[in-house]
Every structure is written in C-alpha cells, then in structure tokens.
Amino acid sequence: xxxxxxxxxxxxxxxxxxxxxxxxxxxxxxxxxxxxxxxxxxxxxxxxxxxxxxxxxxxxxxxxxxxxxxxxxxxxxxxxxxxxxxxxxxxxxxxxxxxxxxxxxxxxxxxxxxxxxxxxxxxxxxxxxxxxxxxxxxxxxxxxxxxxxxxxxxxxxxxxxxxxxxxxxxxxxxxxxxxxxxxxxxxxxxxxxxxxxxxxxxxxxxxxxxxxxxxxxxxxxxxxxxxxxxxxxxxxxxxxxxxxxxxxxxxxxxxxxxxxxxxxxxxxxxxxxxxxxxxxxxxxxxxxxxxxxxxxxxxxxxxxxxxxxxxxxxxxxxxxxxxxxxxxxxxxxxxxxxx
Length: 339
What we know:
The chain is an alpha+beta fold. The protein has helices at about 1-25, 100-105, 160-175, 180-190, 210, 215-225, 250-255, 265-270, 275-280, 295-310, 315-325, 325-339, and strands spanning about 110-115, 120-125, 135, 140-145, 230-235, 240-245. It contains twelve helices and six strands. Strand 5 (about 230-235) and strand 6 form a beta hairpin. The relative contact order is 0.09.
C-alpha cells in the first residue's frame, strides 16, 4: 500500500527536475534570412556641396605701429663698445688674447693682411707687394720685402725698413711663454722659445731671473742670431726675412695678429716699451747696490722724470739730450724746484 505512493513521489520529483533543466538550457538560434542577390546597379554617389561663401565686409587696415626710438647716448662724442673682457695689455709683442687683439689690430699694421674674409688670400699692407719664397743654400727660405714709402707713424716719423726688422726682433726676444713670440720663433728659428738659443734644454723658459744670470756671451750670440732672421737696408727700403726651413703658414702668421705689427723703433726705445728709465737714465747700469743707494737712485730718477713731464716734455730721451747740452739750464730748473 505504501510502495506505490513512494514510487509516485519519486517520479514526480524526476519530472520537476527535468523541467528545470530544460528551462535553464540556452534557446536555439535561428539564422536570419538573407536578402536575395539582385543585379540592379547602385545609385551614383553625389559630390558634397559646399555651403555658400559669406560675403566679408572690408575693414579698415590697422594703423602701423610707430618704430621704436633709437637709444640715445649720454655723450654722443664717445664711442661705447660692449666687450666680454678688458685687454690684458696693449703691447703688441705681449698681448695674446682676443680683447686686446681686437684693439691692437685697429691701431697697428703689419707687412700684409688678409684679403677680405678669405683666410688663404693675402694683400699687402705696409709692404708694396707679397714676395715669393726663395730657397737658400742652407735648406731654408727667405723673402725680400719692399717697404712702402710715405708711411708715417702717429708721431709723424717716417716708416723705415729698420722699424720692420726691429718689430720682428722685439716680439721674438720678449721670451714670455704666455706671449705670442713662439709664432715667429717657430717660423724663423724652428724653436718654441728664444731662450732655447741659450739653453737648448728649455730650462730658461719663463724664468727671466735665471736668464739674467746666463753666460753673457751666449746671450749676445742669441740676440745676434735673432737679428740675423730679419736684415734691413734703409737706403733701398728692403727687409729680408730668413727662415730656417719652409714654413707653410708664414704668410698667415704675419697677417694673423698684432705680434707681427710694425712699431717705431725710436719711439719704442725712447718711450719705454722695454726701457724708459733704464735706457735713458741708465738705472740698471748703476753699480750702487749697497744699503739705501738703489732706492735713493730710483727716487732721484723719478724726480727727474716727473720734472721733465711737468715741463711739458713728451719724450724723455729728447729732454735728456737737451739738458745734457745745456747743463746750466738743468741746474737752474732743479734748484728752482727745490728752493
């Protein structure tokens, strides 16, 4: 009696479970019907039409802005130049930096200069023409320069061939490792520093005190060798420069900077580029070395220089020659100042 009832319940549960499984299964998808292919041509594509252009009314042009006013100088008689630095010196034989070189090349001239912006073309300056190199018997080369006539220095003195030779000697004889003398000594003598003529081991380079103590005979021989690199003839206005070997950049060296600038020899000696009191008043020749004697002599020399300048002399050596010839006049002036 109870078994059929249990069986009925079990069948009912299985039927319900079957229905739940059917409800959770995904529904079958039916493919969408495709449209039948036709041979009808597609309609032509129309070009897009641009919207009508709107008429722009003419407008008045903008008034031009006034040009900015040029800066005004506080002193229109003075030229002011912006520079990145100041010259270390205005001595063309010593200066080897851009600020000083820019100034010096507007003051001095050399034998030749660059021909415009070209760095391999040259034009005569104080020379009448640019000579060709001539071979010498010792394997070197030489150039014979004809110096232009009618050229005057700032003090009115005429340019001479001796001035040209002197200027080249002076640059080489400066013997300063920070100066441009090596540019000439390399070409003329084949050495970096002229002191190598005295001490080939370069022990005297940059040591002026040791150079003063060197053998005087060697010093004189070195000076003579330097002077032999540039010989002159004032009568024919010619200078012969002799190089120990061919030197490709020789022309560029002469044109490239103030180290080859030409100075007045007389002005250089008398106004103190390398002497002044020493050459004109013989201060370094004084043998009074003990006690206060050197200082006393320096005071006396300074007194003489100051007195000469106070009397409107512009050339110390010329003043000395005048008072040497008129000692009473000199004595009167000194006593007048002291009393």
